[in-house]
Write a structure and sequence with these properties.
This protein is mainly alpha-helical. The protein is built from 5 helices and no strands.
């Protein structure tokens, strides 16, 4: 794979990781009754928005093509979230869902970090920034279990 293609895939994966988290929070927020959890999710939403902005700026500057999450994946995510909270919208359930999603993101980013060598320095910085953010969110969400 050419270095540009290699970096394009990596930055796209980082962008999608953050975007899925943002979408998940957006889908969950209307169901959150606990004020503390609601505030935590709003803060996380803002954090993901900021990182997505940085990723978008980087992609524009480096002329990388932005690839959004496809409609089918968004619809599947939305329906999965709605189904789970329909049966149980407790603080514990919502925190658990967010933790599971966050851990999936951490796992994907860690694997990418370990397997993708020679990434553009800016992409590595974005990857590390998002990874650190998600690790901090995982810790914060545990107090809502």
């Amino acid at each position: 794979m050419l270095n540009k293609d290699y970096n394009q895939k990596a930055v796209t994966d980082i962008y999608k990781n953050a975007h899925i988290a943002l979408q998940s929070i957006s889908d969950l927020l209307p169901n959150v009754k606990d004020d503390g959890l609601r505030e935590e999710l709003k803060a996380e939403y803002e954090g993901y928005e900021k990182v997505i902005g940085e990723i978008s700026t980087f992609m524009s500057e480096k002329k990388f093509e932005k690839q959004d999450i496809n409609f089918f994946k968004k619809a599947m995510l939305w329906s999965s979230i709605k189904m789970k909270v329909f049966f149980n919208d407790s603080k514990n359930q919502i925190a658990e869902m967010m933790i599971k999603g966050t851990v999936m993101g951490i796992t994907e980013l860690t694997a990418m970090k370990n397997e993708k060598k020679n990434l553009d320095e800016g992409i590595t910085e974005l990857l590390n920034k998002l990874l650190s953010l998600e690790e901090s969110y995982e810790k914060k969400l545990k107090k809502f279990l």
